[in-house]
Structure formats: C-alpha cells, structure tokens
Description:
This protein is of the alpha/beta class. It has 14 helices and 17 strands. It folds into 2 domains: 146 residues, NAD(P)-binding Rossmann-like Domain (Rossmann fold, 3-Layer(aba) Sandwich), CATH 3.40.50.720; 235 residues, 2-Layer Sandwich (Dihydrodipicolinate Reductase, domain 2). α9 crosses α10 and α9 packs across α13. 6-O-phosphono-beta-D-glucopyranose binds next to loops.
Amino acid sequence: METEEKKSPAIIIILGATGDLTWRKLAPAIYNLWLDSWLPEEFAVIGVSRDKYSGSEFEKHLHEGVDKFSRSGKTKKNEWDIFAKYLSFQQGEFNASTTYSAIGRQIKVLETKWKTTANKIFYLAVPPNAFEEISGKIGSSGLAADKLKSRIVIEKPFGHDLDSAIHLNALLHANFDETQIYRIDHYLGKETVQNIMAFRFANTMYEPIWNRNYIESIQITVSEQLGVETRGNYYETAGALRDMIQNHLFQLLCLITMEPPVSFEADEVRNRKVDVLNSLQKINPEEVHKHAARGQYGPGWIKGKKVIGYRQEPDVSKDSAIETFVALKLYMDNWRWQGVPLYLRTGKRMEETISIITIQFKSPPYQLFPTQAIDNWQPNRLILSIQPHMGISTSFQAKRPGLKMVLYPVDMHFDYNESYTSGTPEAYETLLLDIMEGDTTLFMRADQVEAAWKVLMPVINSWATNPPINFPNYKSGSQGTEEAETLIAKNGHSWFEMPLKNIS
Ligand code: BG6
C-alpha cells in the first residue's frame, strides 16, 4: 500500500459514538491510523449520540478509551492535541430528523472549508434494533444520495435469522446501493485471517493436497476465557450460534475451503466465498442432533479464580436456554471437499482463549513401520493459529535420535513475533481504511449473509422448539461439553487439545 498518494477527504460519522464499540475499538483504530499517517489531510470524525456530552466531554471520553485500549499504548499529549482537532460531537435522538439535518450542516461546513466533496462514512455503532431506523433516516434525509461518496457501515449481528436478514437487506437496498454497504465482520480484518489467502494462494506447496484425497478433517476452534461480561442483554437475544458461528467461524471456513479466486476483485473473492456457503450440505431438521451440540457454562475456575455461571451473569435470565458454546459437524457437497468433516467449535468461559484452524491430513496408505516405532503416531497436521499466538505450524513424523527406529511427531513453526518486528494493525484499522478507500473485499455481501443464515436455520429452528434440558452443561474453564466430544467421536475423531504450546 502506498502512503504517499493523496488520499480522498473523509468524514466518519459515528452513530453511537459514546458506546463501547467506539470507546474500545473505533477511536483507538482511528487514532492509530492517524499516528501511522494513513488518514487523509482533510479528515473529520463526527460523533453522534443521544447522550448529552459537550464537545470537550466527548473528546475526553475518547481520549480515555484510546489511552486504555490503543495498541500503541498511552497517547502523548502533543500528539493527542493535534488529533483531537479532528473530533466533533453532535447530540441527537436517532429517530429525530433534526439530528440528521444537524449532521448535514456539519458536513457542509467541512466540505465548504475543504472546497471538495468528502467520502462520508456513516458508521452504525449501535445495537441491531436501531439499524432499521437509522439507515432509513440517513436515506430519507438525503445524506447518502451521492452513491459514490457515501457509505454505510453495519456491525454484526446482521439479522437474527434468515427472514430478518432478508428484511434488513431490503431496507438497506431501499436507500443504498450494495456497493455503499459495508457489513463488518471484524475477523476478516485480522492479520492472521487475511494471511490465510496469502498462505493458500501465494504458495503452490499445499494446493495439490488441499482436498478430500489428502485431508481427513478440518477443525476450527474459537474459544474464549471471557464470559458475557456486561453484554447479557444482547447475548440473551443472540447466543453463540448467532454471535460467532454465523459470521466469524463461517468466514474462517470460507477462507480455508474456497476455490482460488481468479483475481482479488471484491466480487470475485466474495463469489468464491458464497460458493462455499452454498455448497454446505443442508442439515435435515430431523437430524440436527447429529450435526450440532450446544452448551451453556456453569460456574467454575479460570486461571485460579472462581467465576460465576452464565445464568448468574447480569441481565441473564435465571433459567436461560441461550447457548454459550456450539460445536458443529458440517459437510460440503463439491468435488474438493466431499465427505471431509468440517468441525466448528466456539465457546465462552473455556479453558483457553485461542483461535486455531487445524487441517488434519490422512495417514499414509500403508503402515510400513513396526508397531513399536509408531507408539506416538500422529498424522500430519497443519495449524493456522489466528490468535493470541499468531503463526503457522506443521507437524510431521521424524525419527527420534537413537539406535532404534522410533517415530515421534515434531513441529515446524512460523511465528509472527519472531519473523516481524513491526506492530500488527488491529482489525478495525484495516477495515476502516478499506472503507475509506472504497474496497469491499473484506466485507460481507448481502447474499453471503443470507447464505450463512440459510445453513443455520435448521439448527436455529430445532433448538428453538426443543429447549435444552441439561443447561448448564459445561464448567467454566473446561473444554466444552460432552456432547461435542460424542458428535465427532462418531467419525473416529476428537477435538484437538486447545493450547498451542509450541507457538510462542
Ligand atoms: C464479537 C462477539 O463479534 O467477537 C463477542 O460479539 C466475541 O462475543 C468477540 O467475544 C470475539 O472477538 P475477538 O476479536 O476477541 O476474538
């Protein structure tokens, strides 16, 4: 990427500017983009909220957030003072037309001063139930009339199920062209997630064996030690399937299993991902239990500290049926992956915070070594470690030094921290920059979101009609539920131990 070229003027209008997302993620990301000279000279952030902040209170609030969460540490006073000049605040109710006319006036002042039309980015950092109203108002106020220069950013969850996603897409399309809509899945902005494409398509080594002939199974695990914290209200309407699988884990699955795109044009890449979702085998509503297992955390221990169960968390119902853990077994109907089980697993309050993708290769067709040589036999594995360790590791059999032939699995590692000294940008930095540059590659297209919901609808419907009878069914600090183990044990497989001890 070139930093020298003149960047187009941009105004980011954050709706929900006093909320958590802005505080923890957006403000630090914008600040770091500025620090690293990625922002245009003509740039402004207009924070919009129904909260009554003065301009200086708003600035102070963001300053605290940046100091607390920025990857570059605490701000320096002289730098913050320059950056703060880009910030302004607009108080207003989201349902009032006056809010949008006030935003319009602020935009006009800036554009008159800059003597140009800026890219206007409307970032909806608000709960999903506000998407409809705000996007409608932005449309009816004419703020997004310039289809080339105005963009809307929507956070996940995009819809609650297939019908609501179709409805939301239709509402957005009433006011915005698809090219103006940026549906965020922050996993796609992660460095290690973007590297999956580089790893697969910039190298020839694995492509010939990247298929059902050589791969036994694929496992994707995204586990977190954190519980729902203060997000009980939201989580009670979501659960792990909607919060993580429909978006983050499906995106990882797409990147791992998609066909090579012909180019990196946004639609070409997104077409290949939609192909993946469309080729996932439909789950028979009668057989959901053979494909999906759910769980909810009870009390337990994390890092030597006792933690409460999900049902004891604030804003959570005492008999909540919401799942905080999901394991899925999926299959794909296509030439490359037919018959290869795809295992997805995510949960809160698990033993480790770790996101890994493991490609398990098949065993050699014939076992040539004597039984005593293969006591520790383990078929080849390729592990893409997304976070917190960032790296790629491959395991293979080697002869243990000694007079006898004894095989033992060893690893080869690529570790970001060893190979690179420069800091890694946060996902939101990458995504915000792409939005400013008008690049939709890393964002979810309407059909992609709908295809993802379509795959999950049998599970959603079945779980809604058959409430769980055994919740809570895993202890905080554990590796999840017994059912998740049996789900894949039926294929003779097991979930891999989570900690990636060898990648530091
Ligand atoms: C969010 C989910 O999208 O992703 C959260 O709503 C989850 O529940 C978070 O904790 C995980 O993101 P990350 O980047 O910390 O892995």
